[in-house]
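Objective 1.3, modelling of assemblies. Example input:
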Amino acid sequence: MTMHAPAPDAAKEPGRLAITISGLVKHYGSHRALNGIDLEVRRGERIVICGPSGSGKSTLIRCINALERHDGGSIVVNGIELTADEGTVQDIRQEVGMVFQHFNLFPHLTAIENCMLAPQLNRGLTKARAEKLAMHYLERVHLADHARKYPSRLSGGQQQRVAIARALCMEPRILLFDEPTSALDPEMVNEVLGVMEELAASGVTMLCVTHEMGFARRVADRCVFMDHGEIVESRDAASFFQAPESQRLRDFLAQILR
Amino acid sequence: MTNLSLADLAGYMRQLGEGALITLELFLTSFALAFIFGVLIGIATLSRSRVVQGIWRVYASIFMGVPSLLVIFLTFYGGSAMLGAVLGEFGARIDISPFGAGVIAFTVVYAAYIAELVRGAIENLPKGQFEGARALAIPPAIMWGKVILPQVMRLALPGLVNVWSFMLKETPLVSLAGLQDLVAAAKIAAGATKEPFIFFVATALVFIAFSALSFRLASRLETRLDRGQRREAAGRSSSRAAA
Ligand SMILES: Nc1ncnc2c1ncn2[C@@H]1O[C@H](COP(=O)(O)OP(=O)(O)O)[C@@H](O)[C@H]1O
Ligand SMILES: [Mg+2]
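Predicted structure (tokens):
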């Protein structure tokens, strides 16, 4: 993988693509976690990524905001090619919000302080303006009443919604979710999915690793199935579920929809 | 009181007071420097570089293994020679005072212990804390200052309180290099008046008072650093409501 040629469509309409991934390779030692991934994400597109455990889903989305460094292929985010350069990495992280399986809230800060930290640092907002912004997004995830609480005083579903608000406070154009409901008790899954559906309706570009197939059907423009570090199938949500092409996806769906 | 006049007693007690100030100054300066270097070294030891790991292991095993008194003597008697070797003629002419030798020795020795504590606490933080900060594009220096170190301090606090107490108890060693500290003043007073009991007990009381004060400050600090933790959360919020 040496030459990086933008896809012909992208060349005609450079603003149309949010993320272009081509020939992406990632190794952990001798283990090949990603084995040549090609994926184009249009602006505003909502993509659900699924696949068996260990198939490379987390690695893929963590490469997009450089939490993991890729060692082959290329990633272009909003027209910026991701390189080892720290400035470029920071630029891309400003455009890309991330929500983790285990929330990763800062426990020594209240919900609103968690949300205010990055905007104050990166966007140079005054404390008052950062607070207003944080409150706006906490309202959007229906947590305005809990703004002054520490994460330990909130339920898992509430913590995850704070984490979503925290990511939104950077006003990113792209949101990455890595199994955002997998660590939650079942009764809290829906409140988080509900917020994510509201976000999906707002036009933000979303890449979401999840096994919530109901969510995928309702929200996803496209579903991507990964196995062994490769994209096995990638198609619109309806045919993904109704007419899976590969045996591997059929087996996977049979297991997960059991 | 056999042959000790009140005026003499007051005079010796004043010398004890001056000694206590020197002890306190030595202790606080050394602890502050050991803390700063300990935190920086603790962060540096996380590097996977073999050179860094090698230097750290040699440094830690020397200064955690050699008695502090020896380090003080080496600094005090050998310091000028070492400076001479490094800085040449100019360095050899610099005299190291007992106070300076004490500060250098305690800083070097206790930075190793503090680095070990800080390193352990950092390793015990969930990796997600670093990733959360990185994903938010928080620059490294601010990530350490606002996200990581406040949590590290909470985890390391019990160990830091131990280091604090232990270092305080070791400060009199510097009197053996000639520092006129609290214990040196007590020894002079005791020898001159043949009243060892009065002066040594007074000295002990000063140490007890200072460490009692330290523990109170430490428990306040603990409450502060513990904010947001589930443990005792109910108890604290009710005491805050009462205050
Ligand atoms: N930090 C790591 N070090 C070594 N191997 C890793 C690391 N992270 C992931 N892997 C391996 O890479 C593969 C893909 O992992 P991951 O992307 O987490 O899969 P998924 O999210 O689909 O479950 C797995 O085989 C996993 O064991
Ligand atoms: Mg995963």
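The pocket of magnesium ion (ligand 2) is lined by residues A 57-58, 178-179 (CB under 6 Å).
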